[in-house]
Design a protein that fits this description.
The protein is an alpha/beta fold. About 25% of the residues lie in helices and about 30% in strands. It has an eight-stranded mixed sheet. A six-stranded mixed sheet has the order 4-3-2-5-6-43, sandwiched between helices. Strands 22-21-20-24-26-27 form a six-stranded mixed sheet, sandwiched between helices. Strand 32 and strand 33 form a beta hairpin. Residues about 390-395 have low confidence and may be disordered.
């Protein structure tokens, strides 16, 4: 309500009270009537003023200190201890009514209770965000009294504007004082800066300039690494201060050359500031990475090299583990590589690289490819244009598969993924069941100290009910009784009329009990589990073992012997996430239901550049292939005479993926190797699906800045003229996310995107309307605070000046109660309402105690 309205109403009420007083018919003493009117006017006036909400202010004499203590890596534990002692001393000088608080900070501020709690953060928290700490401190201080922030720091901030935060606190009436702290002196060598070219052409030799600072005279060794391999080193003499050195004759050979410089010196205190990473982007011919189960088979590699395509052939263990490593290639080829070699993180990395970075992917057929290689229902298969399935109508012998699962207590251990070993083993068994044909037998036993027939061995059990029962298996106590479970499996399989009978035994390599009959009860009969699987093999029942553990586990060799004597395969993994792929691979190997090995002719079913100029009527026989189905939306290019897909492609994100279900080696393509079309076909396929780089007139500069990537793109045409109205987008393939660039000048496009400072970043530039892409990579951001181990006295002085305080303040300054402090405001409305109530009660009292005149009664006549 407006103040004027309140006052107006009050005035009207006052006039009304005055009128009543003047025209009252009550016969009381005049002084009493006047006093009642005055009390009524006072009560009305007090209520009116209370509605307006008046306040009064005063400045308390109390001092409120908030100590803000830097506990980041650059100050060191000794400096933190010294700061805690200073805080305790200052707090002891405060008097009654004063207050003190403590805030420790590195990357984030945190309130602590006592000086003893001022310790470095337990987790890695290496940044120094002084601006955030000052802002948090200003918000925590009360709004009155003499408010002061005492900042204990070395001033080496890694983000933000510390002086600005100090100035804003001072504007609120808060003084900001600074106490410099720093690490105790120890010998220290620091690799401060690295100056290297951002790009080069393939094979180009370049130099790198480095700046190294030392606080002592010492000898140091500079090493430089390219793609994690030592490429060179040199010994240098360091003097106190900073010195520049040049590393000569480095050579760019990969699409993204990942470099690291390391300085090694005896007696150095911190290793964290002795290394720096950087990347050099190169341009050159297209490059293909072939992952092959046999690196000696270089037929495909030689065919591509003859077509001026650079090829690197590696075993499965050489598959890149980061997107930045994979960015060195334009096409990734799997040549008969089992899924068990590919970790879950590598699978996701490949998918992201294809989908978001435009990489190409090709899977060739073989006994360890597609379904036979364990790719059914995998992340890699999701990316393929062909699905690892088959028609059951073929002449395939019926299979009887019995899965024996270890459900002992160790299987209940939780994994970092949140799942248990038991849950992953269940998923593997369910996939194995789903791989089988509809005429096959399946059973599952869960075993601890006894056998639990979760799914009795039957022909074509119902799918949904069976999968639910498999996934419901829980772990219990004890270990797995191997002999008992195999003996029960032997009895079940002997009664089944199947052409192929097979057991998959899953066990913990550290806890496979009962290796002999009766071993666990003390009544050992001498019959061993190894002898039992040998006897089973004589009746055409084979046994494979999936072991979870390490080579050094006590029962690894026993489980391996079971597989060898049982005529099956042995799988050992220490990563339970591999179990679903292993079960699928093993089932495919047993059933052999996803491979056809017979001569067949090829038919072209499309018109495509990869098929141009090839006389397909003259194509010789292929001798085998993997059975698959075409994915909806994929393009089918080659077909077998049986009507099965041989070559299919599609787009996956911005990348291209192809599947060729036969191979490019002497096993199935021996006749093709002598065919003239072979040398034309494969380079055309590779060039069709590999990533197409687009460097024409595009110059990309990407820099890190406080958790953000700053991006600038300049675009010109062949004549050097600016290219405008493009729609460029930056996408990060390592952590996800994308950002559009906007044009800020002729031919110039800028933008920014969040990027984790602690991650290596790989990304791609996409421009609408252009087929090609431009890739880039950046190393993790360096910990800048560890490059400056002396206090930044200039920065500290600026913080103190902006905050109206001083550097190294004395007790007299911190305990000074002069000057203007923050005022404390008091609301007067409660007091005014109390006054109005007292006026009202007094007025009632005066009225009630007034003596009324006695009426005169006439005497009777």
């Amino acid at each position: 309500m407006s103040h004027w309205i309140v006052l107006g109403i009050g005035a009207i009420v006052a006039v009304w009270i005055w009128w009543i007083d003047r025209h009252s018919l009550i016969e009381i003493a005049t002084w009493r009537r006047r006093m009642i009117s005055i009390l009524r006017l006072g009560s009305v006036g007090a209520v009116a003023l209370a509605l307006i909400g008046p306040t009064c202010e005063h400045t308390p004499d109390a001092i409120h200190l908030l100590h803000v203590v830097d506990v980041s890596e650059s100050v060191g534990a000794d400096a933190v201890t010294g700061a805690a002692d200073q805080v305790a001393h200052l707090n002891s000088q405060l008097r009654s009514g004063d207050s003190a608080g403590i805030l420790r900070f590195a990357m984030k501020p945190e309130v602590v209770a006592t000086p003893a709690d001022i310790k470095p953060f337990e987790s890695s928290d290496s940044g120094t965000f002084i601006e955030d700490a000052i802002s948090a401190a200003a918000a925590l201080l009360p709004g009155h009294g003499h408010r002061k922030i005492v900042l204990h720091t070395d001033g080496n901030a890694t983000r933000g504007d510390s002086a600005l935060a100090s100035s804003m606190a001072h504007d609120e009436g808060i003084e900001v004082h600074v106490v410099p702290i720093s690490r105790a002196f120890t010998p220290e060598v620091i690799l401060q800066t690295v100056d290297a070219p951002a790009s080069a052409t393939t094979g180009e030799v370049f130099n790198v300039n480095v700046s190294i600072a030392s606080n002592v005279a010492t000898t140091a060794r500079i090493q430089w690494f390219q793609n994690r391999f030592l490429a060179g080193e040199k010994v240098v003499e360091l003097k106190p201060g900073a010195q520049d050195f040049q590393l000569e004759a480095l050579q760019a050979m990969n699409a993204i050359e990942q470099m690291e410089i390391v300085v090694i010196s005896d007696g150095d205190s911190l290793a964290e500031n002795n290394r720096a990473q950087f990347s050099v982007s190169t341009t050159g011919p297209p490059k293909v990475l072939i992952i092959s189960d046999s690196t000696e088979d270089r037929v495909l590699a030689q065919t591509l090299e003859q077509a001026a395509i650079e090829v690197d052939v590696r075993p499965p263990q050489g598959l890149p583990v980061t997107v930045a490593d994979l960015e060195n290639f334009d096409l990734l080829v799997f040549q008969n590589v089992a899924a068990s070699y590919i970790s879950g993180s590598q699978s996701e990395m490949i998918r992201r690289w294809v989908r978001e970075s435009g990489g190409g992917f090709l899977m060739l057929g073989g006994e360890s490819s597609f379904g036979a290689g364990g790719y059914a229902a995998s992340g890699i298969e999701e990316m393929l244009p062909l699905r690892s399935e088959h028609e059951d109508a073929r002449d395939i012998p019926s299979v009887a598969l019995l899965v024996i699962l270890d459900r002992s207590g160790s299987m209940n251990a939780p994994l970092p993924s949140g799942e248990t070993k038991m849950a992953l083993a269940n998923q593997g068994a369910a996939l194995a069941f789903q791989v089988l044909g509809r005429d096959d037998y399946f059973g599952l036993f869960a075993v601890d100290t006894v056998v639990h027939p979760v799914v009795p061995l039957t022909r074509s059990p119902p799918v949904s009910n069976t999968v639910d029962r498999i996934l419901s298996v829980n772990s219990a106590g004890g270990g797995i009784y191997v002999y008992t479970s195999l003996a029960e499996g032997f009895r079940a399989l002997r009664q089944v009329p199947a052409a192929l009978k097979h057991i998959i035994l899953f066990s913990d390599a550290a806890d496979a009990e009962e290796q002999f009959a009766g071993q666990t009860t003390g009544s050992e009969s001498g019959a061993s589990a190894v002898d039992l699987v040998s006897a089973m093999l004589t009746e055409s029942i084979t046994t494979s073992v999936v072991a979870l553990g390490e080579e050094t586990d006590p029962h690894t060799n026993f489980l391996r012997s079971l597989a060898q004597r049982g005529g099956g395969r042995f799988y050992l993994t220490n990563d339970a996430l591999n179990l679903p792929r292993i079960f699928t691979t093993e089932t495919m190997q047993v059933a052999k239901s996803s491979i056809t090995e017979e001569p067949l002719l090829v038919t072209a079913t499309s018109v495509h550049p990869m098929l141009d100029g090839i006389d397909w009527s003259s194509a010789p026989f292929l001798l085998g292939y993997n059975l698959t189905r075409i994915q909806p939306g994929a393009d089918l290019h080659l077909l077998s005479e049986n009507g099965d897909p041989l070559l299919a492609t599609w787009r996956y994100g911005i990348g291209s993926v192809a599947g060729f279900t036969s191979d490019a080696s002497a096993r199935w393509a021996s006749e093709w190797l002598r065919w003239p079309g072979f040398g034309k076909f494969w380079p055309q396929v590779v060039r069709s699906i590999m990533r197409q780089p687009d460097d024409s007139g595009l110059n990309l500069v990407v820099e890190r800045n406080d958790g953000m990537l700053s991006v600038e793109l300049s675009a010109t045409d062949a004549g050097g003229a600016f290219v405008n109205q493009l729609d460029p987008v930056i996408a990060l393939t390592t952590q996800g996310g994308e950002a559009a660039l906007r044009q800020t000048a002729p031919g110039i496009y800028t933008g920014s995107i969040e990027a984790d400072p602690q991650l290596s970043i790989a990304g791609v530039l996409q421009v609408a309307g252009r087929e090609g892409t431009k890739v880039f990579a950046l190393p993790p951001q360096r910990d800048e605070e560890l490059l400056r181990l002396e206090p930044d006295l200039i920065e500290l002085q600026q913080i103190a000046d902006a905050g109206g305080g001083s550097v190294n303040p004395g007790l007299d300054q911190l305990l000074n109660r002069d000057g203007v402090g923050g005022s404390k405001r008091h609301e007067l409305a409660p007091w005014l309402l109390l006054l109005a109530a007292s006026f009202y009660l007094s007025e009632v009292f005066l009225r009630r105690t007034a003596r009324r005149p006695q009426a005169t009664i006439p005497k009777p006549t």
